[in-house]
Design brief:
Elements: H1 10-24, H2 26-40, H3 42-48, H4 56-64, E1 79-89, E2 101-111, H5 117-127, E3 153-157, E4 173-177, H6 204-213, H7 221-229, E5 256-257, E6 261-262, E7 292-298, E8 328-332, E9 352-355, E10 363-364, E11 368-369
Parallel strand pairs: 7-10
Antiparallel strand pairs: 1-2, 2-11, 3-4, 5-6, 7-8, 8-9
Helix pairs in contact: 1-2
The chain binds calcium ion (2 copies).
One calcium ion binds at residues 114, 286-287, 289-291, 293, 333.
Length: 374
């Protein structure tokens, strides 16, 4: 199945990349190729590489000096109260998102924007948390890969120079050693100046850890979609029936020819600072597009066929026929790499999926919080 890379193929790609790197060129060249890949990632790099320094201290200093925009743990600042209600969930356009079915959710708070680099930096500063992409790789997870090639890193979108077949995502996704939330495109990139951009290169487990620290939790898939539909009719896009109502882009997605020619007609070739696009009727930003967002539900392709109608929490076990045995969680909303040409899963009701410990540079999250008891 095509996916605009909901990093569902990431696990296999990771193994593939490490194996290929070993056989072709060894560890030194692996790093050399990755550095070069970062250098030629032109459009996304222009948006991300605003300084040469990648010092953590500098990042934390800049966060400390920002104007109090960091959400404080256990608060509902920068959250929107959703009273709850009933809606039609899913879409009949995708096998794993049908049938469209009635679901009701109880009230909850939801972040008005994706969790930002500044917010995640505050979490790391307070807890010294190390994300999965920064941790050593366990040889047991990568049988057949030489131990010297097991270098921490993550998946980075690296568009080819020319037009390519859309059948092989390894032409535009690379495993880059040193890529992490602080270095989204690789060791030479950093997030200085991108404090209000959504944090990326975070796995489900990283997102969950942040949410717990903040006194929040990850949204259920139903809560996420209820917030995205925002009481509107069941239309193709969350915002309506037209891709560009009144000629204006409603979300940060991909324009041009995927994957090599991103015209950035909507103003952004990579992730945009949160709240760059119009808010929805509930006052929430960037649910569709910008970066994919983790949900708390495990992923099953057949879940909608028998899921509960009231506050569904996801299945008790994961199953993706594309990768049997790999535990995955649901992702929603699509990203700046989604278009009608490739990965149209930014449209309303569609579902993404990703291996629980994997990350990439167009995947982030937001949090929800239950009603505070008096
Ligand atoms: Ca865009
Ligand atoms: Ca989003």
């Amino acid at each position: 199945m095509r996916s605009g890379l909901t990093n569902n193929e990431y696990y296999e790609m990771k193994k593939y990349s490490l194996i290929v790197a070993f056989f072709v060129s060894g560890l030194y060249t692996l790093f050399g190729q990755s550095a070069n890949a970062v250098a030629v990632t032109t459009m996304s790099c222009e948006a991300m590489c605003k300084a040469n320094t990648s010092k953590k201290a500098l990042l934390l200093q800049s966060v400390k000096g920002s104007s109090g925009a960091i959400s404080v743990a256990n608060s509902t600042d920068e959250m929107v109260w959703i009273p709850g209600g009933e809606f039609n969930m899913g879409t009949n356009d995708y096998p794993d998102a049908k049938p469209v079915h009635k679901v009701s959710v109880k009230g909850y708070w939801i972040d008005e924007h994706e969790v930002t680099n500044a917010q995640f930096a505050a979490f790391v500063a307070a807890t010294h948390y190390l994300t999965i992409a920064e941790r050593p790789l366990d040889p047991k997870d990568y049988p057949g890969v030489p131990i010297e090639n097991l270098v921490p890193g993550s998946a980075v979108f690296s568009p080819p120079a020319g037009k390519v077949s859309l059948e092989n995502m390894q032409q535009w996704w690379r495993y880059v050693p040193g890529a992490s939330w602080q270095h989204p495109s690789g060791p030479e990139s950093n997030i200085v100046g991108l404090e209000n951009n959504p944090v990326v290169q975070v796995s489900y487990l990283d997102a969950k850890a942040y949410a717990e620290w903040a006194g929040k939790r990850l949204p259920t898939e139903a809560e996420w979609e209820f917030a995205a539909r925002a009481g509107r009719p069941h239309t193709k896009y969350y915002w309506g029936t037209d891709l560009k109502p009144d000629g204006k882009w409603q979300a940060n997605i991909f324009q041009g020819t995927f994957p090599n020619n991103n015209t950035a007609e909507d103003g952004f070739a990579a992730a945009a600072p949160v709240k760059s696009f119009p808010k929805n009727p509930y006052g929430i930003y960037d649910l569709e597009g910008n970066v994919w967002e983790w949900c708390n539900d495990l992923y099953r392709d057949d879940y909608y066929k028998n899921s509960p109608n009231v506050n569904p929490q996801g299945p008790s076990s994961s199953n993706d026929p594309d990768e049997p045995g790999v535990e995955k969680h649901v992702q929603k909303g699509g990203s700046y790499l989604c278009s009608d040409q490739y990965c149209i899963r930014y449209v309303a009701g569609s579902r993404g999926k990703g291996e629980t410990t994997s990350a990439c540079n167009h995947l982030g999250f937001r949090c929800v919080k239950d009603k505070i008891r008096n």
